[in-house]
Amino acid sequence: MLWPLLVAFGLVARNVEATHTLRFACSQLVIERLDPLVNPGANPSPHMHQIVGGNAFNTTMDPALDIGDSSTCTTCSFSEDFSNYWTAVLYFRARNGTFKRVPQLANQNIETAEGGMTVYYISPDDRNSSLVAFQRGFRMLAGTAERRTRDSAFVNLFRCYDGYDEKMNYRPNPMGVAASDTTELPTRHCAGGVRVNTFFPTCWDGVNLDSPDHKTHVAYPVQGVFGNCPKSHPVEIPQVFIETIWDTGKFDQSLWPDDGSQPFVFSQGDPTGFGHHADYVFGWKGDSLQKAMDARCDVFDARPDPIIHPASECPQLRTQEQAVANECSKRQTAQEDIDAWIPTLPGGMPITYK
Predict the structure, then answer these.
(1) Is 297 among the domain residues?
(2) Residue 306 pLDDT more than 60?
């Protein structure tokens, strides 16, 4: 069931009356080998991650921690969102076998963000829908780091851009090329970067804020974006998905392997893209997210010429200038050079194809 794939296409070319989209930028907080969800307490964790959100991010992220009260700043446009979102990091593998981290590009129309990600919270149009926002201590994982083949229940969507202009409008027009999206890393040279969308589940069991695998307390719907949740997970939660655009154009094709094969690999040793994954730890202040979901805030108008409404159009939430968000950062806990050419992937992660 390629539900997330169908949902993604629907969100790109959706009927704007069907859902409402809270879309905002989160600048880079830190890049380091920590994963308090999958490897709590490990310093360093096995592979490298890029992290955005509140600066309370740490090695353990104790579920009893009130992230909203513990953070002093956030890299996100909405100043009440102290949640943390993180994914694996993309690397370029040169002909001589060395590796270099691929930097991120800002997303369309939010070009002032320092790398990082674009975050979406989707809510249904039906204001009578009992959409339940996340609670303190809630966390979840989308995807499987070890995956190397297509998963029938979960996909990432990759898009290859040929270029972009000074306003960070990507070519081809991102609203008109959904059919060209792939569930694996693109094999051709993407001079304008590679975008990846990762989708979290929208159904919750209504009881557990987490589970041992960080997945079984949530589920994807049987059908559609909202509703039709399985009986085991009857509670509708917001559709969270994140976008990252990797600046693959920095690596000229003259540096690619002689056979022209795709030279990019994720930090857990994944050259396919099927193992791309994302972690989410809820940290919105108080009931701010619930208020925004109840109001069906919409700051993204998905038309052929998209209009990104200012965050102020969601008066239920407080905002901050992106320049202020960019100033929020955190020193590495697991210290290592993230910008040098290195002989192996961080942590010595081997590249695996199956």
Answers:
(1) yes
(2) no
